[in-house]
Amino acid sequence: xxxxLDQTPTVKxxxxxxxxxxxxxxxxxxDIRLTAPDGYQxxxxxxxxxxxxxxxxxxxxxxxxVGEVSPFFHEVVQVGDPIEMRGPIGGHFNWLPEDGGPIxxxxxxxxxxxxxxxxxxxxxxxxxxxxxxxxxxxxxxxVIFRDELMRxxxxxxxxxxxxxxxREPGAVPGVRTGRIDRATIVEALSRLGGPPxxxxxxxxxxxxxxxxxxxxxxxxxxxxxxxxxxxGIPAEKLDATVAVAPEQ
Length: 248
Ligand SMILES: Cc1cc2nc3c(=O)[nH]c(=O)nc-3n(C[C@H](O)[C@H](O)[C@H](O)COP(=O)(O)OP(=O)(O)OC[C@H]3O[C@@H](n4cnc5c(N)ncnc54)[C@H](O)[C@@H]3O)c2cc1C
Prior knowledge:
By secondary structure, the protein is α/β, with parallel strands linked by helices. Helices cover 23% and strands 29% of the residues. The protein has helices spanning 69-75, 113-124, 146-155, 182-192, 205-217, 240-243; strands at 3-8, 11-16, 29-35, 41-47, 57-62, 84-89, 103-108, 131-137, 159-165, 176-177, 198-203, 225-229. The strands form three sheets. Strands 10-9-8-7-11-12 form a six-stranded parallel β-sheet, sandwiched between helices. Strands 1-2-5 form a three-stranded antiparallel β-sheet, covered by helices on one side. A hairpin with a 2-residue loop joins β1 and β2. Bound molecules: flavin-adenine dinucleotide.
């Protein structure tokens, strides 16, 4: 572990230098395995948030109150600790500059991480592929990569950000409140100027299921939708109107 950075009150970035450097494609993840002194092991997947151009990779981990591995990262892991890591993994939820666009990204909570890797890849290669990111967070303080995303949205005419906050008590200028709904997706498609070549949806399982449904209802062919489910209760066990929030 090379560096640890606070991102939000519940999210930290962990910069890991792989012992055997590897290349990866934006959207891929790694598997992390923890082993306790008594031999007990726990394994979890974490998306890579960085673009594939550095000697370290950035993992961005949200601390789940009742979790096993994420609190360990937040409370126990220190700079210098060895981390057992396998990867890169994933051949479906990927974007390469040659894939082109336009691209629709939809993220809930920490589900924004692989989408930011794709955005950073787009910037790294200096391509003008149109990207729209719809990002649902609980409050303004919970928006991961907030400054980077807002700066990019201001500076880059090819990138548009629709930020929506589900639990923000006050109004934030230029930012919506409420959950992602059908109208949010319709607006994102209109900002894209047409149907996306590919749409990437990532977050808690229920979030991904309901957002995918909104995209299909808005006319996006299912064959163009790629999803990454982070876990949690599936949508069928939740009211669909509460599902499209990045609750943990
Ligand atoms: C491909 C992939 C990539 C992932 N990338 C990231 C990432 O970049 N950053 C990140 O923070 N997490 C990511 N996750 C989720 C991560 O793997 C763990 O599931 C998460 O950190 C919780 O682990 P835990 O051991 O702390 O909690 P656990 O002990 O596994 O779970 C505690 C409780 O929380 C519920 N739960 C687990 N995950 C979620 C969730 N996402 N939403 C709501 N409830 C949940 C469980 O059902 C359980 O009830 C990714 C998952 C996958 C499959």
